[in-house]
Design a protein that fits this description.
- The chain has three helices and nine strands.
- It has helices at residues 5-19, 25-64, 69-74; strands at residues 80-83, 88-90, 100-108, 119-126, 136-142, 151-154, 157-165, 175-184, 190-198.
Length: 203
C-alpha cells in the first residue's frame, strides 16, 4: 500500500507533536543543578567579600587595642578556624532521626596547634537547596564567658563541641552548610570557617 505525500506530512507532524507532550525531566534537572551552582557561586563571592572586610576590621582592632605587630609575634592567638570532619547531624533525644547538628570547632594558632582560648562563637546553618528566603535554618551564639563549658580535650583530640538543635521545622534536605565565626577575646580578631555536612531528620 502506498502512502501519499499528504499522509506522510501528517504522520511526521504527529510524531513531532507526540514528542513534545510534556516537560523533559533531564532538562529540568539540569536547570535546577545550574540554579544551585549559581547560588553556591554567589555565596562564595559574599563569603570572600566578608572575609576581606573581616581582615580590614582585624587590622583596625589590633591598632585600637594597642597591639603592635611585634606584640602579636610574642603571643599565641587563633589565626584560623577549623570545623572538624565529624561535624554533622546528631541525635539528642534517642528517637529516630537527627535533632540538629553538632559542630566540632578548633581555633588554630600560627604553628597549626589547636588552642583552648576564650572567644565569642556564632554558628549559622544553611540549607542551600531550600527556597529563597528559607536557606538560613538556624543561628546559635556561644558567648566568651560560657565557651569553656564546651571544651573537650581528651584522647589526643581538642575542640569545642557545640550542639545546634533545629530551630523550628527541620530542614528538608540532608546537605547542610555550616558557617562558624570566632571572635578572639584578647585580640578581638575575627576568624571564620565553612564546611558542608549531612544530617537526616526524622521523616
Amino acid at each position: 500500500m502506498k502512502i501519499r505525500g499528504g499522509a506522510w506530512s501528517a504522520l511526521a507532524l504527529a510524531a513531532i507533536v507526540g514528542g513534545c507532550g510534556g516537560p523533559d525531566p533531564v532538562v529540568d534537572l539540569r536547570r535546577e543543578n545550574q540554579t544551585l551552582k549559581n547560588e553556591i557561586r554567589d555565596l562564595k563571592e559574599r563569603v570572600a567579600a566578608q572575609q576581606a572586610a573581616i581582615e580590614q576590621l582585624n587590622r583596625e582592632l589590633t591598632v585600637a587595642r594597642g597591639l603592635t605587630d611585634d606584640d602579636l609575634k610574642k603571643i599565641f592567638y587563633p589565626e584560623t578556624l577549623r570545623i572538624g570532619e565529624l561535624s554533622g547531624g546528631a541525635d539528642y533525644d534517642g528517637e529516630p532521626g537527627d535533632d540538629g547538628v553538632t559542630v566540632y570547632l578548633q581555633p588554630i594558632d600560627r604553628d597549626g596547634d589547636v588552642l583552648k582560648v576564650a572567644g565569642d562563637v556564632r554558628i549559622e546553618l544553611y540549607d542551600l537547596a531550600a527556597p529563597e528566603g528559607r536557606k538560613l535554618i538556624g543561628e546559635y551564639y556561644f558567648p566568651a564567658d560560657k565557651i569553656a563549658e564546651h571544651w573537650y580535650g581528651q584522647l589526643m583530640t581538642y575542640h569545642y563541641t557545640l550542639e545546634c538543635p533545629w530551630q523550628g521545622e527541620p530542614p528538608k534536605h540532608s546537605e547542610i552548610t555550616i558557617r562558624a565565626t570566632f571572635v578572639d577575646y584578647m585580640t578581638r580578631r575575627v576568624i571564620t570557617a565553612q564546611a558542608v555536612c549531612e544530617a537526616h531528620p526524622a521523616p
